[in-house]
Amino acid sequence: QITSTSSSSSSSSSSTSSSSSSTTSSSSSTSSSSSTTSSSSTTTAVPGWTITGNMNFARYSHTASTLANGSVLVAGGVGSDNGYFNTTELYYPSTGIWTTTGNMNFIRGYHTASTLANGSVLVAGGSNDASFVNTAELYNPLTGIWTSTGSMNAAHAYHTASTLGNGLILVAGGSYISAELYNPSTGTWTTTGNMSFAREFHTASTLANGSVLVTGGSGSAGYLNSAELYNPSTGTWTITGNMSAKRYYHTASILANGKILVTGGYGSTGSLNSAEFY
């Protein structure tokens, strides 16, 4: 159910291209002839950014999920006054407009959002004004309504959520070594094997072979360069090679060749510009 609509302004810019022609002439003493040549200059479009509609609420530490119909669902987060939100809104690429949709049942930021095979969106954990939360809820794109589902066994925030090949959702870390699985068919959470290191603000990437690679983050001993792999078949974690740099708040991207590109983050020397492949 769409509750309210706000319109936003968008701006567009137009560019002009110009071409110039030049003429040359040649002459001789006994006979004269003239020839004309022309040259044109072309401009190459440079990829850039275009302003689109503003959200209805300024927020950070929220989530954004692409729905089956192409719209984008933004949920929760923290406002400019450091208050936590339960508000959600939808972005429509065809119009550039944001429209508010149903509120979540709980305020939360630093949570995760996973789009399930049936098109619904699972939001799990996070933090509110007072503490970490273990609650989870589902967004139905057809009705715009959020419904509570099973709560996690532990309160996770600053964690990761990964979709496995079997459709289960793996939540890992968030100051803990613990991990658990959400089953969309039953709406329940089941604990699985613990990671080797407690970590938060790490990354998690689902690999082509179905395993999940977790990298870096921050733990009780400080910043981490360790990495480990989760095997969905056994429910166990295995240590793999360490990164060259200790980092958290970094990113991890799966490339077309199957490699994982880790970039930036924050480490013992401050902000990082380094990048490395797995």
TrEMBL record:
<feature type="compositionally biased region" description="Low complexity">
    <location>
        <begin position="1"/>
        <end position="44"/>
    </location>
</feature>
<keyword id="KW-0677">Repeat</keyword>
<dbReference type="InterPro" id="IPR006652">
    <property type="entry name" value="Kelch_1"/>
</dbReference>
<protein>
    <submittedName>
        <fullName>Uncharacterized protein</fullName>
    </submittedName>
</protein>
<dbReference type="Pfam" id="PF01344">
    <property type="entry name" value="Kelch_1"/>
</dbReference>
<keyword id="KW-0880">Kelch repeat</keyword>
<dbReference type="InterPro" id="IPR011043">
    <property type="entry name" value="Gal_Oxase/kelch_b-propeller"/>
</dbReference>
<feature type="region of interest" description="Disordered">
    <location>
        <begin position="1"/>
        <end position="45"/>
    </location>
</feature>
<dbReference type="InterPro" id="IPR015915">
    <property type="entry name" value="Kelch-typ_b-propeller"/>
</dbReference>
